[in-house]
Amino acid sequence: MIARPLIRLLSWVLLAYLALPLIVILGASFTATSYLAFPPQGWTTQWYRHLLADPSYLSAFVTSSALAAAATAVAIALAVPSALALARYEFRGKAAISGLLMSPLVLPHVVLGAALLQFGAPLGLTRNFTALLVGHTVIVMPFVLRSILAVMTPEQRALEEASADLGASPMQTFFLVVLPQIRPGLLTGGIFAFISSFINVELSIFNTTAQLNTIPVKLFNYVQYTIDPTIAAVSGATIVAAFLAIVILDLTVGLDMLSEPR
């Protein structure tokens, strides 16, 4: 009887601990001082006005969002057939291919960024959006692949065989049987992929320019010379945008499907 209230209390304490940095960032973004301060000394929105008045921040935010969305879409397109092949078939070299596809999880992103910069030069894959897209797809695909593999069970194979026995074509079986079963993994992997791409600094810094910049790289370069509440304002705007995205996702798709297939 006592254990359940204690577990609930501990859960709320952990959630509050995790939310504390977000509260500090949001509070510091409204301080009237020219330096980061929490609790905020005074109350002003000038740092948000400064953020909106600087087109480079808006451009970087758009670039980061577009890059993360594109990398997630490409990663899903590549991960779905890869997961089906790894989960449904036995073939020579399966373990090696699986290890290769998962290797970006253990390789430092700095190494991947430097390699892309060096070996992509002859192909023109340097310091442009395509180069960033290739690199980000490589680092986020394992998240999608692992999430899909986690929801692919042997029991689903029987449903696919039953669909084929009833006369459904392979495409019909995929869209009507396979896709609904792996949808929780797709959503989970897509969310992780988008976040991982959006916050990446190590790989992105090798292929960004003054005209093509992402929010994490811009902030990384900014804090080397100046530390003022503009940084907190950018972070606060990102937190609010992420919160709104989660609310919209829950209202349109339903986050409850992440826990069980429909």
Descriptive account of the structure:
- This protein has a domain at 55-228: Orthogonal Bundle (MetI-like fold), CATH 1.10.3720.10.
- The protein has helices at residues 3-28, 46-53, 55-88, 94-102, 109-119, 129-151, 154-165, 170-198, 215-223, 229-252.
- Helices cover 71% and strands 0% of the residues.
- It has 262 residues and is mostly helical.
- The model has no long low-confidence stretch (mean pLDDT 84).
- The chain is built from ten helices and no strands.
CATH superfamily of the domain at 55-228: MetI-like
> What is the CA–CA distance across the termini?
34 Å
* Helix fraction bin: over 70%
Compute the average pLDDT. Answer: 84
Number of helical stretches of at least 4 residues = 10
What's the SSE pattern?
HHHHHHHHHH
Q: Which shape, going by the Cα principal axes?
A: globular
Q: Give the tally of β-strands.
A: 0
Strand content: under 5%
Rg for CA atoms: 22 Å
Low-confidence stretches: none
Second rung of CATH, namely the architecture of the domain at 55-228: Orthogonal Bundle
| CATH domain class of the domain at 55-228 | Mainly Alpha
